[in-house]
Amino acid sequence: MWPTSVEIDSDKTAAHSYGVQAVNEFGGLSAKTSPGLSGISEINAPGTLEIVAIYDIHGRKLTDTVSGVNIVCYADAAGNISVKKLVMR
Q: 64 phi and psi, to 5 degrees?
């Protein structure tokens, strides 16, 4: 984990804020972050996924998973497709 430097505003009349800077291996500092911003703007929880297709390692379409490597194509409610390799024993 990279070490960080934290700046804390000690002015008691202003609202407390902070900035975080990462230190690289040469001792240089990264740009300061804006107070209150984490870099994560939105988290989408996965919905239900529907299996669209299943293929074996040779690309043959299957009706169900089999022992060995399976390539499974999923679709979510928005129509986004994701592909996962599953190893079944």
A: -150, 165
The one-character DSSP state at 25 is T
Q: Which residues are registered as beta bridge partners of 69?
A: 87
Instruction: Copy the structure tokens of residue 55.
Output: 């293929």
- Hey, which residues does 88 pair with through a beta bridge? 68
Task: Give the type of residue at 67.
Answer: S
Please tell me the pTM assigned to this model.
0.48
Tens digit of each residue's pLDDT (9 = 90 or more) over 26-39:
778 777 766 655 56
Find the mean pLDDT for residues 3-12: 52
CA-wise closest residue to 24 among 5, 51, 49: 5
